[in-house]
Amino acid sequence: MTATIRLVPQYILAVALLVFTGYPFLYMVATSFKTQEQFFMDPFSLFTSIQFSNYILAFENGLVAYFFNSVIVTSISVALTVFIAALASYPLSRLKFRWNKPVFLLLVSGMMLPIHSTLIPIFILTRNAGLSDSLPALIGPYVAFSLPISIFILTQFMSELPREVEEAAEIDGCGHMRMFWNVILPMLTPAVATIVIYNFIHIWTEFIFALVLISSPENMTLPLGMQKFYGELTVNVPALMAALTLASLPILTVYFMAQEKIVTGLTGGAVK
């Protein structure tokens, strides 16, 4: 009984955090089902009516095209990030060579680089490469700025993997490539899930690089398209809420599919 009483403050804090973080999303969804008249009459009510006209309006204003552009850019960027980071982390964590730590520190130091300070050089480089106003123009910067944190997480997690499994595979004749693909990589699922979710959210919501590198409406990603969409529907708040609800669904889906692996991936290598 005493242990249960001690947990009461924790439950109260958990409920308070749930309300604090969940209410804005609940309000956004509820408002998306209102008409403009209902919103102005009672802006703070929840689920007083169910109207799908706002979602239809969102699709009619090009949300589908922006959505698929974001899916393409985010999927390719995340896949390349995981692939490159995993290949880089294997020698940094499992192989011993003279420049191991300096190379690791050099790669990880990219986390300290202010991303926005590279906007002009990246814009000039993209223009000179003939990639301006195209989806590939976004993939390069997204992958580059996602690699430092991804390499850090994978290297730390990989360093904690038991050496016995690797030694047994060496006895069976595994080389480094086969060791990586058949032994090490399957054990990295928690860390890979972590960097997939982290980078997916970051890339899906990225706005500044899309604003600088993309100009034509047909190549706009969802955050950039939402800004244009907001300009067209400044007064129609329920329609904006409908568009924001649709834009947030992929993030929530990816997170809930792999949320149980996040803590394991983030804490891997933190405790010796």
UniProtKB/TrEMBL annotation:
Q: Can you name the source organism?
A: Paenibacillus naphthalenovorans
List the GO terms this entry assigns under cellular component, sorted alphabetically: plasma membrane
Similarity field: Belongs to the binding-protein-dependent transport system permease family.
Q: Know the name of this protein?
A: ABC transporter permease
Arranged from A to Z, the UniProt key words for this protein are: Cell membrane, Membrane, Transmembrane, Transmembrane helix, Transport
The major lineage groups are:
Bacteria, Bacillati, Bacillota, Bacilli, Bacillales
Q: What is the superkingdom listed in this entry's lineage? A: Bacteria
What are the BP-aspect GO terms?
A: transmembrane transport
Which SUPFAM superfamilies does the record match to this protein?
A: MetI-like
> Which stretches are transmembrane?
12-30, 39-57, 63-90, 102-125, 137-158, 179-201, 237-258
Which Pfam families does the annotation name? BPD_transp_1 (PF00528)
User: Membrane topology per the record?
Assistant: Multi-pass membrane protein
Where does the record place it? Cell membrane
Q: What's the main place this protein lives?
A: membrane
